[in-house]
């Protein structure tokens, strides 16, 4: 992700799913007081021109569904490009992961009952089940059918449960003395700690290693990793795996943060007149060339620290749980705006893949997750998988694309 956007479960997705299945004349959701402010859409590259179908009349007897973010336009299956070509690998698993969330609304329960009866390798039966649903094209209120598609992944770090060479850089669980702080009193800081009768801003990244900061943080270490840049990486991504020396792995997921505003490292480089627009790779290379004190100065320029919760990795083929509660599946999961599309629903995506020279990537996906920067009707973050290669591909995924969602027929 380009910015810190911890993935948190949202009730908006369930509310939208209920509205879409129970009130087909519209599915706008009430504004949420806790929803983050919309982030500016990233600059994207246009995909290689594709054959775009002419304006399609809505499917007979159905009207577009208005949402808070845009609208869902009912279309015929003939508009969903190359649906018959998708081999549907991992789609059965992804659908099963979605069903506990989807089944909270009555209209999804018969669909999920059919999913449960299907064999995992029954692609024909799965395709028939999907085609029993009604496809809807996502578009803006102005009728725009394409929008920004970006990518994300789960980093894999090297670490140890005990501090030893070369594992010197801790990742922390949520401290017990962390309390809410009014942003006005805290001058923009939203978490604090009690100091006598007062609540004062919580320790910054630079303060945590001090003796005073360690009174709060000592004993909260989950693991130590071997690269200080990996601490920043997993904080920005919001979750990640840590490979341990004994061959096992831990998954760390976002639990909280210290309440200080996030300041991207690129701002420090800009202020210092170095590396005008650095990405993570460029920053890593810079860190290897510079003395530890200089690297520490750069890292401490971001006062925000993310705290994590740990769980074992029980299935190495899937990623962390998304906002729907479903584990995200490589190349089958999206982060979406739950005000634009029902969270957990089966979808279809078309965008230019950076893996194969901008060849159009068309496949069934699921809206398993959300993200602070994922706002708008035709906006998605595509989950590429795990590790360094997935991270490189995710960083290159900044294209325009199109989206459809499949919903139970009314």
TrEMBL record:
Lyase keyword on record: yes
All residue ranges annotated as the Lytic transglycosylase MltA domain in the record: 156-309
This protein's UniProt keywords: Cell wall biogenesis/degradation, Lyase, Signal
Biased composition (Low complexity): 30-60
Cleaved signal peptide residues: 1-28
InterPro entries: 3D_dom, MltA, MltA_B, RlpA-like_sf
This protein's GO CC annotations: outer membrane
Record-listed E.C. numbers: 4.2.2.n1
Presence of keyword Nucleus: no
EC category name: lyase
TM region positions: none
Listed GO MF terms: hydrolase activity, hydrolyzing O-glycosyl compounds; peptidoglycan lytic transglycosylase activity
Domain of life: Bacteria
Protein name: peptidoglycan lytic exotransglycosylase
Source organism: Caldimonas brevitalea
């Amino acid at each position: 992700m380009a910015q810190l956007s911890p993935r948190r479960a949202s009730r908006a997705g369930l509310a939208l799913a209920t509205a879409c299945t129970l009130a087909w004349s519209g599915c706008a959701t009430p504004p949420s007081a806790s929803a983050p402010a919309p982030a500016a859409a990233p600059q994207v590259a246009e995909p290689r021109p594709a054959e775009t179908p002419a304006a399609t009349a809505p499917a007979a007897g159905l009207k577009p569904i208005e949402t808070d973010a845009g609208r869902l336009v009912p279309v015929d299956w003939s508009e969903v490009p190359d649906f018959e070509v998708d081999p549907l690998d991992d789609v059965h698993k992804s659908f099963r992961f979605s069903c506990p969330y989807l089944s909270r609304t009555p209209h999804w329960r018969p669909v999920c009952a059919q999913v449960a009866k299907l064999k995992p390798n029954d692609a024909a039966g799965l395709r028939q089940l999907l085609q029993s649903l009604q496809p809807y094209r996502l578009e803006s209120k102005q009728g725009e059918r394409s929008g920004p598609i970006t990518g994300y992944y789960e980093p894999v770090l090297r670490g140890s449960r005990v501090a030893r060479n070369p594992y010197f850089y801790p990742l922390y669980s949520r401290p017990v003395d962390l309390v809410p702080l009014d942003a006005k009193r805290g001058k923009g800081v939203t978490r604090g700690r009690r100091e006598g009768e007062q609540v004062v801003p919580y320790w910054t990244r630079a303060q945590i290693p001090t003796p005073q900061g360690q009174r709060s943080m000592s004993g909260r270490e989950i693991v130590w990793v071997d690269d200080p840049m990996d601490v920043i990486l997993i904080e920005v991504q919001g979750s990640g795996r840590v490979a341990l020396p004994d061959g096992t792995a831990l998954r760390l997921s976002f639990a909280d943060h210290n309440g200080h505003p996030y300041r991207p490292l690129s701002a420090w480089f800009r202020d210092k007149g170095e590396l005008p627009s650095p990405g993570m790779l460029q920053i890593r290379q810079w860190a290897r060339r510079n003395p530890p004190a200089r690297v520490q100065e750069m890292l401490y320029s971001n006062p925000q620290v993310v705290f994590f919760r740990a769980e074992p990795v029980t299935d190495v083929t899937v990623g962390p749980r998304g906002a729907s509660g479903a584990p995200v599946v490589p190349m089958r999961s999206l982060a979406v705006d739950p005000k634009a599309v029902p969270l957990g629903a089966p979808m279809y995506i078309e965008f230019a893949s950076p893996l194969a020279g901008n060849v159009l990537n068309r496949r069934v996906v699921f809206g398993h997750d959300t993200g602070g920067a994922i706002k708008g009707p035709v906006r998605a973050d595509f989950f590429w998988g795990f590790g360094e290669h997935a991270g490189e591909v995710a960083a290159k995924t900044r294209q325009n694309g199109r989206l459809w969602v499949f919903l139970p027929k009314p």
